[in-house]
Specification:
The protein is an alpha/beta fold. It is built from 17 helices and twelve strands. The strands form two sheets. Strands 1-2-6-5-4-3-7-8-9 form a nine-stranded mixed beta sheet, with helices on both faces. A hairpin with a 3-residue loop joins strand 11 and strand 12.
Length: 364
């Protein structure tokens, strides 16, 4: 645990340094490796030539991050886990979004397989009965196709989405606008504990961070970034749900919208998104057909992939909807025979399919 704490401390110190934001922190880490090694030898940092004198002085000062002992206590008290963008456990879908978080804290379990088939479900805190009913129905049907549900633990649509996932025995992840030790809203404490049992509470904010209104718009890019697509159930045109949909569009994620009564303010957002080109959703099948899936009453789980299969599959996901065989050769460096063998294994596991034009399509 001591080595983990040193790693966490170094990442926090790197990101809290003057003139260092997410992008610069990630560049430093990708160029030079783990921050704890950099802080032991700051000459490498100086050689990089992207830090100011103020930043240099901060790194040279042998001081712990602010409230470090309190952070350590919270990590232990709440069994909080940590992953950085350099780690294999860091969610792959987040790595290539604009402004990815350099690290995440989480309570529960993060599983890369679960994110291969995932949908963000967001909406207003003041949900109508129609919005609640449709969200529950759609999520319940998505559960039968083994979709993981991503949302934000807020009142209203978020709560309904998480509960529907849990009631149908599928994983759900809640992305927090606070530290993962701070359950907000407090009324959802029991829900949060249920999520932790098989899913996770996730946050880029340091443990102990309390709810502040500007945190929630920031975390919305993570909600959309973790998922293949984003369903906006209800919300007005100024709602956080619409911001999440905008992030989804910018991240090349699919955007789905539940149409509503034009006289209700909760329907303004989804109806507006439909005008912009979001897909109209009447039921879960409207989402499933985008991924060429059907509801599977046998609830078969995503098959286990070996290292080579997983490598190829991740490349296909990052280049959806399809990739030419020759592009895969160039991207992976495999020989024709080697790649053909791996693709055949993936096809037999029913996670890809070949389409005309010598192209390959991921099915999850």
């Amino acid at each position: 645990m001591k080595s983990d704490l040193e790693k966490i401390k170094a990442w926090i110190k790197l990101l809290s340094a003057p003139d260092i934001g997410n992008a610069k922190a990630i560049k430093i880490a990708r160029d030079l490796g783990e921050p704890k090694n950099i802080l032991e030898d700051t000459s490498k940092l100086l050689d990089l030539g992207i830090i100011t004198s103020k930043t240099r002085d901060y790194f040279f000062a042998e001081t712990d991050p602010e409230n470090w002992q309190k952070i350590c206590d919270l990590l232990e008290q709440y069994d909080i886990q940590f992953t950085s963008i350099l780690d294999e456990s860091y969610p792959e879908p987040l790595k290539n979004i604009f402004d990815p978080p350099p690290f995440l804290f989480y309570r529960g379990t993060l599983q890369s397989d679960a994110l291969r088939r995932s949908i963000a479900v967001v909406g207003t805190r003041k949900a109508s009965n129609y919005g609640k009913l449709m969200t529950k129905r759609i999520v319940s049907d998505l559960a039968r196709a083994q979709f993981t549900i991503i949302s934000g633990l807020a009142y209203g649509i978020d709560t309904i989405a998480h509960l529907a996932a849990l009631d149908n025995n599928i994983q759900t992840y809640a992305v927090m606008g606070t530290g993962v030790d701070q359950i907000y809203p407090a009324r959802n404490r029991e829900l949060a504990e249920r999520i932790i049992e098989d899913g996770a509470l996730i946050s880029e904010f340091i443990p102990g961070k309390k709810a502040e209104k500007w945190n929630f718009p920031t975390r919305n890019r993570i909600i959309s970034g973790l998922a293949l697509g984003c369903l906006v159930a209800e919300g007005d045109k100024r709602s956080g749900a619409l911001l999440t949909a905008k992030f989804a569009m910018d991240q090349n994620r699919d955007v789905f919208a539940l149409p509503g009564d034009i006289n209700r303010p909760q329907a303004e957002g989804p109806n507006y998104l439909i005008k912009l080109g979001a897909k109209i959703i009447a039921n879960a099948n409207d989402i499933l057909e985008e991924y060429e899936l059907v509801i599977n009453d046998n609830k078969s789980k995503f098959p286990k992939l070996n290292e080579e299969e997983d490598f190829i599959y991740r490349i296909l996901l990052q280049n959806k909807p399809e990739m030419h065989f020759d592009q895969l050769i160039v991207k992976t460096g495999y020989k024709v025979g080697e790649l053909s063998t791996i693709l055949l294994a993936l096809e037999l596991k029913n996670v890809i399919k070949k389409v005309p034009g010598n192209k390959v399509v991921p099915l999850y």
